[in-house]
Every structure is written in C-alpha cells, then in structure tokens.
Design a protein that fits this description.
single chain; 314 residues; alpha/beta; Rossmann fold; 2 domains; 5-stranded parallel β-sheet; 4-stranded parallel β-sheet; globular
C-alpha cells in the first residue's frame, strides 16, 4: 500500500457503506486478505499500530463485533480499551454526548461505537476528534459486517457481478441487511429479500432488490443465502404469530437446501437461533461459511483500523 493511499484513508470515519466507493471496498478486501495471513501465523502480532489507542464503546450487547475489534487492535499492537454501558457512567445518568466527549478528551486514536439509536455514530464523529467506526447503530448500518461478508463471498465466488444473493429473515430490523444490500448493489449483484410481509421495510423495492415471500424460490435461485436473526428486542408485538409458526415457513432446513445450487454458500451474521431461522444441520453443514465470516471479521477490522489510524507498513 502506497504512502499516498494511507494518507487518503488516515483520519476518516467509517459510518456506513456509502462512505466508500467500490474501488475502496476492493482495496479493503485485498488489505484484509493480507492480515488474514497474519492470523494464521504462530505469532499473530504486528507492530503496525504500536502506541495507538482504540476504544470500543458499546451501548448494546455484542460478542462477535466487540471481540473481533479487540483482537484486531491487539494483533496490530494497539492498546484496546473496552467500555460497555453496564459498567459506564451512563448508568448514573451521563448523556451519550458527555460520554463521548469525556473519552475524546483522553485522546484515543479511534473510537468504535455500537448504539441502539440510528445516527449515534455519525453524531459521535462530529465531536470525537478521532476516526469513528460504526459498530452498528440501530437498524441503520453495520459497515464492517458488510465488508467481511463481501470478503467471504469474494473468497468463494468469482466476482460479485450477476451474483445472486438471497437475504432471508427479519429485514425490517436488520442493519446487516441494509449494509449488505448497499454494498452488493455497488457491484451489480442481484439481491432478493425474503420474509413475511410484516418483516419487510416499506418500499424495500426502492433499494434495488427483488422481493419474495417464498423460501423455496429464494433458495433455489441463490449463489449465496444469507440468513438473518429474528430481532425480538427491536420488535413490536404481532409481526408474526409465534416463533414456531415463523420457523415452519422461514427456517433454512436441509430439505430446502436440496433444492439449492450445488455450490451455494450459507451465511449468517450471528448470533444464530438454531431451529428458528436456520437448522443445526445446515448451520454446521458443508454449505455453511458462518465461521469463515467470523475469521474474516478479525482480518477486515484489522484492515479498517490500519487504514483509518494511519498504520505504518510492516
């Protein structure tokens, strides 16, 4: 990576996929591939961000994203501080603004934020004084998840153009779906969303996707099947009768996979609700690349931190 490229990235924010161009996304994927090799070494450490400090500020529960950012920062030799809302002054009544301003006054080099309110990361970027990375804001955006998902697809498929991707499940509440759709449409992929009508955003067709309520149709035509979790924590009552009823119509089972293409891959951003949106034999089966997504998450977040914090070549 050239010095000019590093200068162009340094100090930027990553708030949503539309902050990036298609070329920049491919650059991130290529950079992440290099960092993936680091994670396969016996000594999984580079001095690239030595002396930098990364703060993970999470107002929502998280396992994969927060741990992934923490491991990514530490593998680049950054000092990583994790702050969860349960252990912060927010429990004493401190506002989001004051929390961010107080952390910013300690001069971190990057701030990763997850929050239940759409736009929280964008607001933080106006007052933090350092690069802000959106680790998920409400049902709005989750850019690093989309980037690691594209990295996973790129490893298994030859390019994204004309790739058929079916995203199935709770589209209405999914920041993962919105970010993936935005990213895939940059590369002219064909995206189909499948869900009960009550779990689709109003006007979803305006995002450039096809819509179906038929799981068999969505699975049979797909090169990539991306399953989504039912987000009961964001959900109003009455969007579907029961989880059992939902699973009867929208759980990805081995029976449905028999109708899929032979080289289809199955993805899921996690956490998985086995037996609700995906059966265990599919989640653990030969089509699944779910754990590959987790592996790629560390590499992609290493790439993002490296570029936004202005890491040195190693």
């Amino acid at each position: 990576m050239t010095e000019e490229t590093l200068k162009r990235w340094k100090g930027r924010h990553l708030l949503r996929i539309s902050d990036l161009t298609a070329d920049e996304i491919m650059g991130l994927i290529n950079t992440a591939q290099r960092f993936k090799e680091v994670s396969e070494r016996e000594i999984k450490k580079l001095p690239t961000l030595r002396g930098r400090t990364v703060v993970n500020l999470f107002f929502e529960p998280s396992t994969r994203t927060r741990t992934s950012f923490e491991i990514a920062g530490k593998r680049l030799s950054a000092d990583v501080i994790n702050i969860s809302v349960q252990q912060s002054s927010v429990t004493k009544g401190e506002t989001f603004k004051d929390t961010v301003l107080n952390i910013a006054s300690m001069k971190p080099d990057a701030l990763v934020i997850r929050h239940s309110s759409p736009g929280a990361a964008k607001y933080a970027s106006t007052i933090a004084g350092c690069p802000v990375i959106n680790g998920g804001d409400g049902a709005h955006a989750h850019p690093t998840q989309a980037l690691l998902d594209l990295m996973t697809m790129a490893e298994r498929k030859q390019g994204f153009g004309n790739l058929n991707v079916s995203i199935i499940g709770d589209i209405l509440h999914s920041r993962v779906a919105r970010s993936n759709i935005a990213a895939l449409k940059m590369f002219n992929a064909n995206v189909t969303v499948c869900a009960p009508p009550t779990l689709l955003p109003h006007g979803v067709e305006s995002m450039g996707v096809e819509v179906t309520h038929d799981m068999e149709e969505a699975v049979a035509t797909a090169d990539v099947v991306m399953m989504l979790r039912i987000q009961t924590e964001r959900m109003a009552q009455g969007l579907f009768p029961t989880l059992r009823e939902y699973a009867a119509h929208f759980c990805l089972t081995e029976r449905l996979m028999k109708k899929a293409k032979k080289d289809v891959i199955v993805m899921h951003p996690g956490p998985i609700n086995r037996g609700v949106e995906i059966a265990s034999d599919v989640a653990d089966g030969p089509y699944s690349v779910i754990l590959n997504q987790v592996t790629h998450g560390v590499a992609m977040r290493m790439a993002v931190l490296y570029l936004l914090c202005g890491g040195a070549e190693s």
